[in-house]
Amino acid sequence: MIKFLIYDGSFDGFLSVVFKVYDERLSKIRILREAQYDHAHTLFDEKEVVQTNVTHAKRVWKTLKQKCSHHGLRLIYKAYLSEIAGSEESMLIFIQKQLKASSPISQNYSDPDILRLSKVVKMVDREKHRLDAFVRFRQTKEGVYFAVISPDFNVLPLNISHFKHRYADQKWIIYDLKRKYGIYYDLVRVEIITFKFDPGALSPNVGYAEEEMQFEALWKNYFKSTNITSRKNTRLHHQHVPKRYWKYLIEKRP
What distance in Å separates the CA atoms of residue 34 and residue 94, rounded to the nearest whole number? Predict the structure, then answer.
């Protein structure tokens, strides 16, 4: 019988599960987040909720740092950020193989388990880079630049470095509507924030500076005037700017 190990969805929570697997020498398990378990279980499942233990998580991560290359550590973390059901088992298999190996194995793509994990990470990286390009800030009345996103994967932690360096001279917030948290840069540091309200439920123009509205109107007019209808290539446009990112772009807003 397969035993389901349920964790809270945090990275420390996953590492706590890894600790438990080794500590109790468990096999024939599945690892799921709390939100995923309801869609995967049957009445006959054996399950256990694994409480997040920061001390255990740190011990596991310290061991992985000793055995993994930097690439291997990033492979594990980015796979976690994918939030794809089943990724945790692939991550555990990779960890088990790495701890048995005498050298880093994260780039051994002849191994089907590592190749499978690498494909997941490639999707996460693609989403991260697209958000680097397509996120659009709007200036609020308080002078803070604000942007909302809803990516397929939880890539916001990977975007921090890019936006911190690119917009180092202004305060900004990027908020993930799907996961209900954001990052705030105050000109010195970046911190994780949450709102008690849903920014996505507000009227599109509520709280934004008058200059922002004027700029957006000018940009839409410019975009419209420079668009050459006879040279329109919808297929190529969708290839470079997938439709699901249009909601971020000023020129695509109604």
Answer: 22
